[in-house]
Structure formats: structure tokens, C-alpha cells
């Protein structure tokens, strides 16, 4: 089969590789049909993120099931499924608590398409075939009527956005949301804005200095405000920091209301000083960390199926599979490759 290899900063190439084969009763083989870039991929391709390769590339996509082991019950050959980027068994103590990003049955950081971060190489999704080790626990069938191209980023970035507003709005219905958008997690910030609108927030403010992202935020139903990330636009009970860097993080914490939640979905590559006394005084709940994507993917897909959230509005480039390499190297914000 063919698979796409990231061989270094700005270097991608297709290579021939032996096809994966089922080796356990709970596994599935899938054929990716719509692939998306994750927000860290453009940075990786520019050499600005510490995952330089070489490794098989791609960790966001929808695939068609082509073979299943005898114990697989929840999916069948021909189903179209979201493939979560994190490897999870579904039965260990962490998975039982919904902490599927820290599954204890495999080394920490076990994922598709990001190299052997956890010690094992699980292959990439930008390939003719991928082996899913726990089909029932991992794969999520698409509801009827949902376009695989629209939800190609439901493996990682859309559920990552959901965790920053979904549980918070469930606990505080209608609460106002501020998203500080920017280049570190650009699509996650936009998905968060769109999901907050879909989940009934009374007001969703999206702050950014990019005309492209502001226009997308507006199309998702958010109130788009142009300005630097440290602009004061008020205090909010729910804050999402997606811009990256110390200024944005500090601005997000400063904008968090009493008893508010602040979630940083950007990956801060440097240490950042935090105003702990202010946070204590305001009873600020601050969360950062990798999202546990698998448990929230069905909720995301339900919102799309119901017509309440359209993630396709965030996609900035769509190409045919064969044109992937050139398109990836142009590093658009959100690329989807289709076959
Ligand atoms: Zn990712
Ligand atoms: Zn597990």
C-alpha cells in the first residue's frame, strides 16, 4: 500500500509499505476516505513544532471499514467511521472513566500519525489502510446524512474544541463564552466558537487579529471582534484560549469571571507565569492538557447531524488525495484531502 511519510521539516513523500493485517479478534482494517490536518500539522511542516519526523503522517480522518475481527460488534465492513487519533482499549481504568487519551493498556501518548511518541509507531492515517487495534472501543460510525468531508477533523480538533465548551455549557446553560483565537490552535478555537453557539450560549465572542478567522467565526454565528489577544472585552464565565503564547494565556485568565472555567487548548511550548492569587480569589478553574477525544465524538456528530453545527465552514482548503503533498506544504489552516 501507499502511505505518506513525514521525513523532516517541509518534507513529505509517498512510500510503498506492506499492508497491515488483522492480528487480533477485536481489530479492524480501515481505508481513510477524508483526511484533515490537525492544528499542529502546519507547525510541524514548517519545522516549528518538536515532532520533526520521520514517521507515517496523518492523525485526523474518516475511513471506511474494510475488514473486522470475529469479536467486533459495533462496526461492520462498509461502515464509514471517525477514527479517533488516540489509541484506547475501552476497558482499562482510565478508559472506563472517559480518560481515553491516557489508556493504560498502551504506552502513554499512543496515537496515529505522530511518530513513536509513546514508544510504539501506530502508523499514520494518510495511507491506503490503517489498523485499528480496538475497533469497538475506538471507532464511531457516522450518523446517516453526515458528510465525511465535513467531519474529517472529528478525530481530534473538533472534540478538542468540544471539551472546552460542552461540559461547561451543560453545567451552566446559556453562559457567555469568549474564545481568544490565534495561530496556535486556529481551527480548535473556531470549532469551539461554533459549538458554543450550537450548544445555546447566549453570547459567543471570538477575539482575533486575523481577517480570515474572524470571517469564519462570524459565519459560525459568533460575535467576531478584531483586536490583539490581550484586548479587554469583558469577563466571561467560559473562556477558551486558542492563540498560544504567554500574552494570550494571561489575557484568558484575566478575562475569566468569578467561578469561571478557562481552558487552554493551545500547546504552550514555553513556561508561562500564572497569576495564582487572582485565580484563587476569583475561584478560577483552569484546565490545560491533551483532550480525551473518543467519549465526546458522538456528541459532536449528533450536533452536525441535527444541522446545528457545520464544521465545514472552518475548512480552508479541500483537495483530491493525489494532490495532498503540494497542498500540505502550502500549510493552509485546515486542509481536507478526499478520495
Ligand atoms: Zn492533533
Ligand atoms: Zn484503555
Automatic annotation (TrEMBL):
Keywords: Metal-binding, Zinc. Residues 188-280 form the Alcohol dehydrogenase-like C-terminal domain. Residues 24-142 form the Alcohol dehydrogenase-like N-terminal domain. InterPro entries: ADH-like_C, ADH-like_N, GroES-like_sf, NAD(P)-bd_dom_sf. Its cofactor is Zn(2+). Residues 1-25 are annotated as: Disordered. The keyword Zinc applies. This is Alcohol dehydrogenase catalytic domain-containing protein. It comes from Nocardia amamiensis.
